[in-house]
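Teaching note: in complex prediction, the entire set of molecules is handled at once rather than each chain in isolation. The prompt given to students was simply: 'Predict the structure of this complex.' The entities are:
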Amino acid sequence: MQRILSNELPAYVGERVTVAGWVHRRRLLKAVAFLILRDAGGLAQIVVTEPEARDRLAALTEETVVEIVGTAVANDTAPTGVELHEPVVRVLGSPAVPPPFDLYRPTLTATLPTQLDHAPLALRHPRRSAALRISAAAAGGFRSALDRLGFVETHTPRIVASATESGANVFALDYFGRPAYLAQSPQFYKQLMVGVFERVYEVGPVFRAEPHDTVRHLAQYTSLDAELAFVADHRDVMAVLREALAGMLGAVADRAGAALDTLGPVALPEVPAQIPAVHFTEALRIAGAPPDEPDLAPAHERALGEWARREHGSGFLFVTGYPMAKRPFYTHPDPARPGYSNGFDLLFRGVELVTGGQRLHRHADYLAALAARGEPTGPYAGYLDAFAHGMPPHGGFAIGLERFVARLTGAANVREVTAFPRDLHRLTP
Amino acid sequence: MQRILSNELPAYVGERVTVAGWVHRRRLLKAVAFLILRDAGGLAQIVVTEPEARDRLAALTEETVVEIVGTAVANDTAPTGVELHEPVVRVLGSPAVPPPFDLYRPTLTATLPTQLDHAPLALRHPRRSAALRISAAAAGGFRSALDRLGFVETHTPRIVASATESGANVFALDYFGRPAYLAQSPQFYKQLMVGVFERVYEVGPVFRAEPHDTVRHLAQYTSLDAELAFVADHRDVMAVLREALAGMLGAVADRAGAALDTLGPVALPEVPAQIPAVHFTEALRIAGAPPDEPDLAPAHERALGEWARREHGSGFLFVTGYPMAKRPFYTHPDPARPGYSNGFDLLFRGVELVTGGQRLHRHADYLAALAARGEPTGPYAGYLDAFAHGMPPHGGFAIGLERFVARLTGAANVREVTAFPRDLHRLTP
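The expected output is the structure of the full assembly:
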């Protein structure tokens, strides 16, 4: 008999069906016993009345994997409105060692470090797996939105020859006896690929040797990168980012609705047709910061998030025109405003979620930018070469997937929405 | 005026339009000059008759990025059946340094090493970019097919604590002062995630410190991984692999038709509703190998590929039941045939493309398998823990994306279909 999932039960009332999954919970009452089965579709209630079956159920440990044949009977109080009667239970594999924390309680009571130590088990909890389903939907929505806009997916190197992009915080590697580094982002490669496809995106792991233990940094995270050519300036990039975000949230609504309910329910933010944008100088004023501050502190970002909510009813806010001094060397300056750039951040609920901007595209501008920072051109040779051979005006952005999901679901720590986080202290499981 | 792509020109005949892209080629004849423009849509022909405009065109180097306003005029001999007249050309950026090889010839005449040294330029050649478009479509098709089958996408660590999975050929890393390694596959993690979602897939980079310089190995490649629970045996895994392949080829047909034409045209193989399968012992007989061979050599695989084509009209062939001795410790044995496994390979046109199989799922079986190989359990602690806590029968497979595209397009070397390959000798660009 073909196995069905627990959420398919309503279509089989009155029939004998097969389900399979994990023993989520057992409740042994006087007259009756219940087995709650967990599978990819959710939870199913199995009713046991026959004494011998009840004895066998009493001996089953939580998390044991079982296959159950039973009769589907409507019951409004069961998880899907349908429960199974007259079950025949078969253990697949062997009885499970009971987990170190109860997976059947509404919320995991174990501390986050304990959950992370036992990640393969903790992730089985519906609230933990729900966050990862949302993450999967968001990544899919990002790709679909950019596919529709003519972007091409790329797969670029994670092992690079120079620790160039942000200087510090790189992991060093032995590459066949030569020094190499893990990529902190696909930045240079996505720019090079703009010379090939004009519009590219990449979804993949990036690596930062973050020496700080914070709730929003990981040593490996999933970066949603996009880059596009033939832009007039950074505003064309912001327009595509708006579409990507709308695609991500649309996919979460479409494909992870049950996961959103499990977590709250979580209400998804609207993405305004035009996300409000303020210039960096104006952002300082709104945040009450001194006008000569070179960057926004977290407290400023929070104040801006509140302002955007209050003044524009928006969870999203662009801050444009960051000072050149605080942006990477490849950032395009604002031609109309010396010292300021065509670089932007997108704040989501008062936290920086996306960094992006227009990039330099003339070879001579790159040489001048590196010279101004006192940097040699040697380590950038392969990158710079492309600009000598004709590159269009372009720009792009990068979204941190885990940070997006954490902010969306209200998770206090990005590790809650990461399957197997890597950080200063954690290299396993 | 909104820019259009060259392949959109037929809809604008008689109108004044803006195009932009790279100077692909110039042809200066006596009475007339032609500029061939390359953009994301393909090629467009611009006709220059006005003497001053002709002089300016003569001074433009190949690969310079330009914007052109012109009048769309039907002409059957032009690339899209439409060419632009009375052009006004504006250089975006600065004149390009001419490339070290001609990008406008039908095929790149530079050697592959030279192409790879100048990858950002070589990839602009329509044949090189076509292969990457096919690659993007194939990866998208893989995900779509598995999404339809209820799989959830995962993002798992690329930095791991033990060099366990295949022992040799791992890259070592300094992880905050501790030894760590780059993941050779997401094998362990996808199995752990089967305990969470039942069906998972992951598309991402994996790393092998391949000490051999061959045409089919890379130090980093893109692995298309899938794993599914509640299988009866490896045949359920093979059925899902068949759907994934059909999805990949369907997406290539739908989304990369022009790229297929550029490369040949390339004819896509049919995926049989039931891909033929032979047991390993039978495969040895067909290949004319001694019956005690423990594995298939490349020559055997080629012979099997020819056999499958001849006998079944299929480019694909499953070889099942590989000897346990040649498969990883987590491989499930064939219960009916001691010494043989429920592991399989899929050959595509006589080359191994996919490895997969049913895995062990009982904790005791893992302990016994490691003991039989004389391996300690310590390095596998986090992995084994999940099996103690209840894991369903499961299996999965991994497809090498670059190898798939190379075999599909007839590329002799996997580096021809990889944007920025990494190998024993190559760490840049």
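Point out the following to students. Residues 120-417 of chain B form a domain with the BirA Bifunctional Protein; domain 2 fold (CATH 3.30.930.10). The longest helix of chain B spans residues 126-148.
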